Amino acid sequence: MKLILKIWRQASPKDEGGFQTYHLDDASQDMTFLELLDALNEKLIVEDQDPVAFEHDCREGICGSCAMMINGRPHGPGEETTTCQLNMKAFRDGDTIIVEPWRARAFPVIKDLVVDRSAFEKIMEAGGFVDVDVSAVPDANTYPVARRDAEEAFDAAECIGCGACVAACKNSSAMLFVAGKVSQYALLPQGQMEGLQRAWNMVAKMDELGFGSCTNTGACEAECPKGVSLAHIARLNRQFLKAGFKKVGEEKN
Amino acid sequence: MALLDSKIPEGPLAEKWKKHKDSLKLVSPANKKKLDIIMVGTGVAGAAAAASLGQMGYNVKVFCYQDSPRRAHSVAAQGGINATKNYRNDNDSDYRLFYDMIKGGDFRAREANVYRAAEVSNNIIDQLTAQGVPFAREYGGTLATRSFGGVQVSRTFYASGQTGQQVLLGSYSALKREIAKGTVTMYERRQMLEIVVKDGKARGIVCRNLVTGEMERYSAHAVVLATGGYGTIYFLSTLAVNSSGAAAYAAYKKGALFANPSFIQIHPSSIPQLNDYQSKLTLMSESLRNDGRVWVPKQKNDKRAPGDIPREERDYYLERRYPAFGNLVPRDIGARAAKERCDAGYGVGETGYAVYLDFEDAIKEQGEKAIRDKYGNLFDLYRKITGENPYKQPMKIYPAGHYTMGGLWVDYNLMTTVPGLFAIGEANFSDHGANRLGASSLMQGSGDGYFILPYTIGDYLADEIKNPRLPIDDPEFEKAEKEARERIDRLMNINGTTTPLAFHKELGKIMWNHGGMTRNEQGLKEGLKMVNEVEERFYKDLKISGSTGSMNQPLEKALRVAASFEISRLMLRDALNREESCGAHFREEYQTEDGEALRNDDEYMYVAAWEYAGDNKEPKLHKEPLNYKYVTVKQRSYK
Ligand SMILES: Cc1cc2nc3c(=O)[nH]c(=O)nc-3n(C[C@H](O)[C@H](O)[C@H](O)COP(=O)(O)OP(=O)(O)OC[C@H]3O[C@@H](n4cnc5c(N)ncnc54)[C@H](O)[C@@H]3O)c2cc1C
Ligand code: SF4
Ligand code: FES
């Protein structure tokens, strides 16, 4: 199959960047999207051109590396799919495919399709953990957890930290990412102690890092490759309101 | 043989670790602040260790090549993590897990280490639960378990088919907590290239910053490698594509012995290779064999659709050959049995190199919902890749390279033969012998990280308190950086016509055909020749574009492939040396009448540890004899 690829090329964070057009004549529907990029890069390397930089590792939809916009959608067409799971059967002979990095103020481009997602790391450091020491813990069956709650906590914890929610959002909000973590712990007895503080701190950090605010468009949920649900944002909001009410923001950690 | 002092404590098996802990030196809180530890790797092992050491008060510097520690390869583990809680009251115990691992490893692992791994397993589940890891629960709210291959109890804890993700995120969150506290400093997007050894001790590392391309030097009182396995020597494997043994190999070149490199696990159930473009094989977790039944048609080259083949014309060959364990035989056995059927012409699918994993009976008995609850995400994964619906038709599976039991030789304290250089998780060789049982790697890595290394490293560091940090302009740092630069320049300047990816594919084919599921002398020797030949071409014809002064992914890859040649050679040599079959190492010349691995305990009951002797020189073999006091060594049987 013949394809035209318009790919964002940007040599460094300071570089302006722009689209470059590539013609691939021997693409196959048997490839995944990343294997298509591999094939393009093989050509570019041999022609002594700089290959397209993109992130990838697990290639099975779980590490969250393979961030890119394909034809205007995070991770391209397909429901609950990461780029590495995207099959070329989704495209037709003669198609033009536009490939860009995530676009968000909090995710500056490093090179080509590679962006800096360390803002997510900082949000996690603001409270994305249970405040418990190694070894100072009771037997795992001490606190029963209703199966329904455990399953919902798992659904929230499935987040792979890819950033598609941010890329999909017109406000570049990271609410779904934050909500997944806050909700996971809010549903479990282990996360209760510092629960409100966590919600407060993580949201405050998100605001500080230049992510936009949530206006409930639902674009994040629609593009989340793990199907993390908007219901978690509702839970986060409740926690956050409670935290504001109790003025936890004014307490010292 | 002073070099291989395993430091296994005296005393009864069940008391060794306790006694040993009591004898280890401690470092006072004030002194811990003065000590720096470098942790390379943030998988289950590295993240857990870094979090623990940070909490204890050491200064920890952590490195990974991804943009976030959360993306380490451990995130992909699916099926579960073992512990001897005996929550099912099925008479499980530390001894039973120990016994299962020793037997599963075909009597090629150290008793003391394995027992310790079983002993700390319960603490891990407690720890992870306290961290908010959402393990699967029963309706009553207690933790659920399931069974894995090679065992007859239900001791595997899980979080759907994403246990690795949840376990890693638990440890990652603990790591984040320490980073927030300032005890741990994180360095992402770094490729470690050299280990700095001064006066015989590991004192630092040299990395390439993957964003700027700059070389960076980091100094410490001890260096820990938690860099994972080297299964990507097969090119196609279930590992993350950027995984490699390059870091372990750098340690080997600095004097750390490399143990049992030929012990590589081929997992019986991965989605078969579908085409030549493929860059990765996707695992279908062993947990599926709790409910899935493996079969092939009884008739050769049977091209009928699976649903059209009546039950009596199906060969449930695992149940037939191994009635006691059935579909839950250990991985090496399951993998070879699949290969045997396919080689004999009974395989299915387009290529004839696949077998069925069928859930029809389980769905009939338990209903589709129950199966979806247990394996939903794996079924979805399967459907995404193959376009087939496993609720309606059986999965097609075939073995794939998966896990390396071999790795850096470590003593009971998890220290390599280079003082101050430790190895944990899949990067070391210690606990799985010649074959790893399912759900025991997350366990071993977490155990090493949370509960073993944090104690044993103190014993070494207690004597390092007086030693100041090695300045990074020390000649040893200069030398290490120069070596790394020269390696890079050499690769960049070849300017040939073949990409690193193409070379990797070529190497992978050789290794799969000559050092894969079964091996023989002639094939191994041929393999060695071929690896040498491709490597020679690599240094004449490699092509990397772009510059060294910025992000350059082909260069990163070329550095890994260069090390993979050398590891492959070591692996083939080890396989040649071991003239017996044991666990995953199956030499065709040594098998029983019914095709099982035939060990030679008189001559090969040892750990083969290889010492680097210089480029183009034969490595030197050291043997650590294995003694079994607490189990009866016998021919493994799962019948
Ligand atoms: C598909 C799959 C499913 C599995 N399922 C299970 C299961 O259900 N249960 C189970 O117990 N085990 C399972 N395993 C095995 C298990 O996942 C691994 O053995 C284990 O996670 C390894 O953990 P680790 O911490 O040792 O290393 P890894 O998780 O491999 O981490 C390696 C780390 O080292 C870093 N690193 C490596 N080289 C360098 C370098 N040169 N410079 C800087 N950083 C470097 C990486 O960035 C990474 O952070 C599975 C494995 C696979 C492939
Ligand atoms: S919530 Fe979904 S889209 Fe957002 S980072 Fe997590 S997995 Fe990605
Ligand atoms: S490469 Fe890991 S999610 Fe795509």
CATH topology of the largest domain in chain A: Fumarate Reductase Iron-sulfur Protein, Chain B, domain 2
Mean pLDDT of chain A: 95
Distance between the termini of chain B: 40 Å
Q: Could you tell me the radius of gyration of chain B in angstroms?
A: 24 Å
Report the major sheet of chain A. Answer: 5 strands, mixed
Structural class of chain A: alpha+beta
> Which blocks of ≥5 consecutive residues of chain B have pLDDT under 50?
none
| Outline type of chain B | globular
Major beta sheet summary of chain B: 5 strands, parallel
- The overall strand count of chain B is 19
Shape of chain A: elongated
What would CATH call the homologous superfamily of the domain at 270-400 in chain B? Succinate dehydrogenase/fumarate reductase flavoprotein, catalytic domain
Oligomeric status of the shown chains? Answer: heterodimer
Q: Report the portion of residues of chain A in β strands.
A: 5-15%
Percent helix of chain B, as a range, is 25-40%
Number of helices of chain B: 18
What is the mean pLDDT of chain B? Answer: 96
CATH superfamily of the largest domain in chain A: Alpha-helical ferredoxin
Spatial order of the strands in the main sheet of chain B? Answer: 5-2-1-9-17
Description:
The complex is a heterodimer of chains A (253) and B (639). Chain A is an alpha+beta fold. Chain A is built from eight helices and seven strands. The model of chain A has no long low-confidence stretch (mean pLDDT 95). Chain B has 639 residues and is α+β, with helices and mostly antiparallel strands. Helix content of chain B is 37%, strand content 14%. Chain B has a five-stranded parallel β-sheet, sandwiched between helices. A five-stranded antiparallel β-sheet of chain B has the order 11-15-14-12-13. The chains are: A alpha+beta (253), B alpha+beta (639). The interface between A and B is large, with 78 and 80 residues. Bound molecules: flavin-adenine dinucleotide, iron/sulfur cluster and FE2/S2 (inorganic) cluster. Flavin-adenine dinucleotide binds next to α3, α7, β6, α8 and β15 of chain B.
